[in-house]
Amino acid sequence: MKRIIIGGTKSGCGKTTVTCALLAALKQRNMSVSAFKCGPDYIDPMFHRKVIGVSSHNLDGYFCNRNTLLSLLGEYSIKSDIAVIEGVMGFYDGNCGSAHSMSELTETPAVIVINCKGMSDSIGAVMSGFLSYRPNRISGFIFDCLPEKLIPLAEKLCRELGTEYFGCLPKCDITIESRHLGLVTADEIADIQTKLEALGQLAEEYIEIDKLIRSGDVPLPVYEPVKPPFFQESPTIAVAKDSAFCFIYHENIELLEKMGCKISYFSPLSDSAVPKADGLILSGGYPELYAATLSANTSMLESIKKCISSGMPTIAECGGFMYLHDTLTDKSGFSYPMAGVINGNTFPTDRLRRFGYITMNANSDNLLCKRGGTLKAHEFHYWESTNCGNGFTAEKSDGRTWDCCHTGMNIYAGFPHIYFYSDLGVPERFVKKCIEYGVRNGQDKAHCSD
User: Which of 129, 237, 273, 317 would bridge with 279, disulfide CB 3.0–4.6 Å?
Assistant: First the structure.
């Protein structure tokens, strides 16, 4: 199985641009490509899907053990000519969630992207540091923003350090904008296809793609495929999916399908009601950017509240959690009425709140686990709530703790995002509750707007 990890020296060094350029070039060669993102990021996989036209998936060393990572990597790249895995932050950053850790766990060769702006010979010092810092599987480097006159220098440095020169991307005016939550989503970038085609052409000209492909031709370690339980009852799960609710781990949804669930997507922005279902997932996203439209869609708000009041098992994460509040205040200070399930207001702050991985300890029996149970989760949000809940106690690796999440036997609502493959008992418990709800409400399930 051919596969490579595209790592970087730090966040913002150009690894997403290089990854997109490489994916675009491979697509232009009519190759079958699978894409992955290290860590819990939602946004980069959206770019990957836009570039290659197929689904992209997350690989997270914090959420998953080695066997699960290998199972996901094997499953989602089995039909591909090559798998391209994009790293997170700097190559060594993130402990068990780092690109370095992923490279070691999956025995995947890594290519490091260096932003060469403002450097010449100092490029060699950066290369030497990354090659020698820890034992690694770094096979070579790609040099971003490298002036063409410095290409001979980069090649010379690679020879001297005993590593591969995999090419460069020269300075260009093709940019991917930033926003408060990382990169903007692919659908929001003007003429994205034109930009990506141009990046692909640059990659074909300046990146040594054939050498890169050969470097990734290594066997995948032996693993045991992950096999979730299957339910004959086939409950239907309604999943919010539109521009406001776009942060979805596709592995979570596909895992539910493997367990026998039927998925019914709907749009809180444009639909009038939740479709007939046995369970509800309100995804994360950008509800603050669409607050006026969401608030004006009163029939959907009433439908959401009716579903949850009826006992429909519900998972609402981050943006979905914000949507359930009485009100949502935007950056201009205007407050919009929302679903009114959570008594409180959600409002913007001037900094990133509670960023990173956490372990959540359940304070009572709930939809996802029993009292005393633990769940791995991830937070990344600039908005805050006057009522975060106390169903779980969150704990960081440095010992900091805080209360979070509204929970009950039929609801999980809070800022933390969960990843089903970190504990298959979580989706199993959720699906069982959905089946129970369907049985209570009969085969002809009532529409939440009826």
Answer: 237
